[in-house]
Queue: 2 jobs
Job 1
Amino acid sequence: MSETCKVSSERRGDVAILWTDGYINNQGGEEIAREAYSHLDQGVRALVLNLEKTRIVNSIGISILIEVLEKVMDRKGVLAFCGLTPTIDKTFRIMGLAQYAEIFPTQDEALKKVAAQTA
Amino acid sequence: MTMPVSTAGLENLWKRVGAILETDAPLPSRIAEAALAATGARHAALYLRDRDAWVRAGERLAGEPDGSPIPDPLPEGIFVRDGDLWLPLSAEGETHGMLRLLGVDEAPESSNALAFLFGALVGAHRLARQVRDAEFELKARLLELESLYDLGLSLGGQLDLSALADEVLFRSISLTDAGKGTLVLVEPSGAVLLERSVGGDVFAARDVKGWSLPEGGVINNDASGTPTAGLALASCQKCLAVAISVPGRQLGVLAVADKESRDGRVLDFSATDARLLSLFANQAAAAIDTARLHRDAIEKERIERELELAAAIQRQILPRDLPEVPGLEIAAKNVPTRQVGGDYYDLFPLSRGRLGFVVADVSGKGVPAALLVSTVHAAVHLQIDEAPTIADLVGRIDRHLQRYAATRKFLTCFFGVIEPDTGTLRYVSAGHNPALLRRRSGALDQLGATGVPLGMFPKASWKELETRLEPGDLLCVYTDGVTEALDANDQEFGLERLSKIVGAEAPPVQLCREVFAAVDAFAAGVPQYDDQTLLLVRRKE
């Protein structure tokens, strides 16, 4: 696993997909936030976070993801997660992230759903 | 000093402020906008207290400098400084925020009311954040409990040590908010069985052997330069380490380091962290022990299968019947041990009534040794009619092994050819144990090595020697499994005992039986780890 979390992204219409690779901690969370805010500022309304290359998330990372989620919601946008390990899936559900952001098994399913929501 | 405002103006002002405050924008933005509407300031900036620091709330404007311009020490009440109006936002007697209104060099009459209103809002906002933080903490504790439960469930069925180590390490790092973590498992011998690190090494795996951790683990919140439990740590500032152990044995060490905070500081590990990590280590210890036993059982099964295969190869190669050669009495026996080695013997009736024979001992055990024996067997049978001399035959087999043997192994062997009519024995001993030649008179000669073992050195050569078996003389060729058979005290059977038995005047078949009976009696049930092979050839009188 990468020692530092790498985040890459791609915009597809109104939706931006963010891929993480590595530990979502303070540094990883900040990377995600920076990438997400950049897309939001450019008018993106829906974000899909693909975490299939992430196996660890700590509470700092989660709190940053909550901040991102709040910002997305402030802008009446949509945030979805996909590719979560069972442990991270459960973590997100317990920590309340799943209350406001849907979790999908695959990226395709997430894209389909958020595209429909933002259409 | 404050500027007076008319009643109607005040009413309008509150309406505008109220409308702004009711929007969906984040609270800091609403307060700033309402303040701008109420005061006509050029720009409003809100700073909120976060522990000991003042943090800019809301989005920073383009060109706005980093850092907080909050005056230190903070003046009491509302004040104007350098053309900016400062409103302290207080609630419950504590100042939680400062509103800076740029371009307002005189406080309006509404200042106190605005400060009171915004102070109440900031107080409520702060309270809401505290509730949210408390809720987050509560959920984090719930997550810890769930993780412990899940870890127990998932480790219970996990027999893959590697996956198990990942599971334990990932959860430990995640739940302690550590920046890095290392898990090392060791064999009972102290050798490193497995090492995993995330975010970098907390310590060097080789150091686990010397690491004696007390129950409950060690917290070192000043690890820079300070050894933890006697060991220097790899680059980290603060560390928490616990032993993974079962009663009487340490299986490994689990360590996490550099607990993160939201603002980038490295926090101290707490007793709660240590307790949590200890619980993880306890859960892991039982599962790791089970997984290791499972792995050992699988390895044992694999070895058993390999030994069965090697034994089958060996059975196919060794002669089923001994040849009848006029003028000679022959006896031979091979006793494979549980750990099948590479003993091999064979006899070849040759032209003019001669008898060729070989006794060989391959280095190593199991399938690799059995395959090498198979290679030698094939090479001997292919070359024996072609080679003009025994030395040449041995050289050809050696070249064949150097060229084609899959593994770098070697073998010792004793090749001989006897002419029964004359008793002439020509032989080559490639690093083999000395063969014994018992004369009819009772004297015992040793036929030592005439060259190095096969497969060991390229371009080696061997001398071929000749001796004569008189009528009644007995040749005894054996492998070291016979002379090095061990008893319960690790004493070897030895050449002396063998010499004494074969030194007696008796038919080879009887002597062969007596040798193996004596070895059995000597070992007294102690398992032997090397094949035992004996070949006896006596020239009839």
Note: Strands of chain A lie at 6-12, 15-21, 46-53, 78-82, 102-104.
Job 2
Amino acid sequence: MSAPETRTASELADALAAGELTSVALTQAHLDRIADVDGAVHAFLQVDADGALRDAAAADERRAAGSPASALDGVPIAVKDVLATRGLPTTCGSRILEGWVPPYDATVVARLRAAGLPILGKTNMDEFAMGSSTEHSAYGPTHNPWDLTRIPGGSGGGSAAAVAAYEAPLAIGTDTGGSIRQPGAVTGTVGVKPTYGGVSRYGLVALANSLDQAGPVTRTVLDAALLHEIIGGHDPLDSTSIEQPITGLVDAARRGSEGDLTGVRIGVVTELGGEGYQAGVLARFGESVELMTEAGAEVVEVSCPHFVHALATYYLILPAEASSNLARFDAMRYGLRVTPDGSPSAEDVMRVTREAGFGDEVKRRIILGTYALSSGYYDAYYGQAQKVRTLIAGDFDAAFERADVLVSPTAPTTAFKLGEKVDDPLAMYLNDLATIPANLSGVPGISVPSGLADEDGLPTGVQILAPALADERVYRVGAALEALLARQWGGRLLDQAPALEGAR
Amino acid sequence: MPEISRDEVAHLADLARIDLSDDELDHLAPQLSVILESVASITGVAGDDVPPTSHALPLTNVFRDDVVRPGLTAEEALSGAPAVEQQRFRVPRILGDEQ
């Protein structure tokens, strides 16, 4: 495993610093890998070879001059297609934004550029991040590198698959109800949803403003911490951005990797397990809890009684916010415009454009949101959902009195077959059962690979949640679990993934 | 149990400014009924004494000094427009027949 694309971002950064490798060579190796395998995986909607190599050359010059821009200067990255990239098309997986080239960078993207990370391209996603399988992309689904007939999770299946298939050492995802963590679980990779407000949303095309959060998609916990420290921190362009520096995450990951959890109180959430969860997922979860106990953690069972209402709460709040956000796609200022025959009004043009430009799931959620916000139903649905959101936050508060972190399986099942749930919205929504409570309450969470399910040999993940602003805890405990499992496996879970066609 | 009729879906699509074909209405209406039936389970979960939460973390108003900052040029702002005329967004007539 000496090919550069199989090494971790942290190792690659060390090799670049030591002068053993150039960013141009490293970036080219990933572009070659994309050319080899992305026909089968379809993780990318757009590859920017010229831009990435240009940025890589600049990174090499900085390294040669002894003035790297950051620890990860020259390590390439893939970016989910929901973040605006100046000069590089940004579609959100939708026809309505096909070919749109943003005139500005999202803050996350600007920080990546400032830190010297060459951007390989934009990754596939469910349209406007609505989905759990990437099948709602208008540009075709992404395939799970473990089994190309299965889904890579969603909405950020492209970012997770790119990292799992060694097409990129790092990627950016966004998580509104689990879109970073659930793809991580089903592809055997690591995904982190930071505390709400910890990473700027400026330039992130909004799905649900009060829930959206961008974060790292990586193969190791340490890599996620390194990336998180680069993209995180206060941004005056996002009024919900937390006015605190992001520090201590890399240190927490390094400390955790020693595998000692003495004195850490781990809460197993009663409501996030049992019925609806695949046996193999629960078996691997139980073993992970056992390992953490052996490493010194104190395990307590905690009940969060209102979590059973989280899914319903989410599917009222999210469509309400999304239907408002997507009203901006009016065919006037950017994006698709379809003009019907005759002498249509602006409103006629808008109706026809939105019919042509939005896919089924987007239409479903816009209509659901319009319903939930309409007079006569507002109090019964949206108002009630906002109240239940308060109760769910209260459950978290009570649970974190008794435990430093909470744990559960990340997703209730392993990756299912492409096409299996695409026209059954409710079955699709159930994939986010365990990840949604964190978004409703703004708390940070990580998904760490926990093994392969016995039934199908596919990856499963463990989710670790911490109180708001205590992101370092998910890194410490996540890195510890990762290290404990790696000792058992004699390597990373991804080492067990089958080789992809075309792999050299 | 809340039911959502085909006519109601058509009305909501109208409010949301999306044309839906007959096929789409046939397809979406029953799916929306199933979803609504499921989310309606939260009715009555929270009593009147529970305050609503709109954001996960408490928000305060954010102010900044009223100073000029660099922004998009007119060309950049118009770069994604479907139609442009005289450095402006060109749009269809804005009044409908009934206005």
Note: The longest strand of chain B covers residues 84-85.
